[in-house]
Write a structure and sequence with these properties.
CATH architecture: Roll
CATH class: Mainly Beta
Helix content: 10-25%
Strand content: over 45%
CATH topology: Transcriptional Co-activator pc4, Chain A
Order of helices and strands: EEEEH
Number of helices: 1
Distance between the termini: 46 Å
Structural class: alpha+beta
Length: about 70
């Protein structure tokens, strides 16, 4: 199985913290040396493990932002 490498290029925000210390974060992450994407996922304390998440291109992140602004102002 191929090792997955990631580099957090920019820390944007911690969205929540669970009782176990896991954090749900949004960051700009480069996966396997590729172009960085916006990434939402959970991390264990000290970022030793990460959970399943979602990656978004800049355009997708913009679409998500516009959709959430519309939804949350209704």
């Amino acid at each position: 199985m191929k090792d997955i490498q990631y580099e957090i290029v920019k820390e944007i925000a911690i969205l929540s913290t669970s009782d176990s210390g896991y954090t749900k974060e949004i960051n700009l992450i480069s996966w396997n040396g590729k172009e960085p994407k916006y990434d939402i996922r959970s991390f264990s304390p000290n970022r030793e493990k990460c959970g399943k998440g979602i990656t978004l291109t800049e355009k997708e992140a913009g679409n998500l932002l516009a959709s959430l602004k519309k939804e949350l102002t209704q």
